[in-house]
C-alpha cells in the first residue's frame, strides 16, 4: 500500500494536523506513548487501520466511548464511512450510538430480551428500546 492511500485516509479522518506535527511524518515510529495522541486521535488512528484493511464485517465496541467532545464529530463521520456497504455490529451503551442501526438487539444479563428493526421497536411503546428512548437512559 502506498503513502498516497494512507495520506488520503488520514486526511479523510481529520488526522493530518497530527501527522504534520510528527518529526518524520509517516516515517515517524510511534512508541508505547502513541506519539502524544489524544484518546480521540488514537481512536481515529485505529479507524484508519480498519479503513486501510477494508473488511466486510466491522465490530465496534462503543466506538465513541473514549472521545473528547471535539473529536466526536470526526468519529461519527468516520463510523458512517466505515459502515457504508458493510455489515457492522455495534456494541453500545449510549442511545445516540445506535441511531444508525437497522436492527437492535438488547441483552440483559447475557440473554437476548429484545430484537427487531430499530423503527418498529422505537414505535412500540411496550418495547424496552422505546422505553429507553423515552427516558433517555443509556442501555
Explain what this protein looks like in three dimensions.
43% of the residues lie in helices and 17% in strands. It contains 6 helices and 4 strands. It has a two-stranded parallel ribbon. It has a two-stranded antiparallel sheet with strand order 3-4.
What's the SSE blueprint?
Blueprint: H1 3-12, H2 16-21, H3 39-53, E1 57-61, H4 69-83, E2 87-91, E3 103-108, E4 111-117, H5 118-123, H6 128-135
Parallel strand pairs: 1-2
Antiparallel strand pairs: 3-4
Helix pairs in contact: 1-3, 3-4
Describe, in short, the structure shown:
The protein is α+β, with helices and mostly antiparallel strands and 139 residues long.
Question: Top keywords for this entry?
Answer:
139 residues, alpha+beta, two-stranded parallel ribbon, 6 helices, 4 strands, 17% strand
Global outline:
elongated
Catalogue the unreliable spans: none
DSSP strand count? 4
Radius of gyration: 18 Å
Q: What is the CA-CA span between the terminal residues? A: 40 Å
Strand proportion: 15-25%
Order of helices and strands: HHHEHEEEHH
Q: Could you give the order of strands across the largest sheet? A: 1-2
Note the total helix count.
6
- Mean pLDDT equals 82
**Helix fraction?**
40-55%
Oligomer kind: single chain
| Largest sheet features | 2 strands, parallel
> Structural class, judged by helices and strands?
alpha+beta
Amino acid at each position: 500500500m502506498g503513502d498516497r492511500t494512507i495520506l488520503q485516509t488520514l486526511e479523510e479522518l481529520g488526522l493530518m494536523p497530527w501527522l504534520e506535527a510528527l518529526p518524520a511524518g509517516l516515517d515517524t515510529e510511534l512508541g508505547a506513548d502513541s506519539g502524544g495522541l489524544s484518546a480521540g486521535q488514537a481512536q481515529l488512528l485505529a479507524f484508519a487501520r480498519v479503513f486501510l484493511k477494508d473488511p466486510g464485517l466491522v465490530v465496534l465496541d462503543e466506538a465513541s466511548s473514549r472521545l473528547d467532545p471535539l473529536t466526536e464529530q470526526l468519529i461519527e463521520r468516520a463510523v458512517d464511512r466505515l459502515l457504508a456497504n458493510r455489515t457492522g455490529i455495534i456494541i453500545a451503551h449510549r442511545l445516540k450510538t445506535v441511531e444508525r442501526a437497522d436492527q437492535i438487539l438488547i441483552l440483559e444479563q447475557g440473554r437476548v430480551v429484545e430484537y427487531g428493526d430499530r423503527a418498529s421497536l422505537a414505535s412500540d411503546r411496550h418495547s424496552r428500546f422505546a422505553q429507553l428512548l423515552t427516558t433517555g437512559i443509556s442501555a
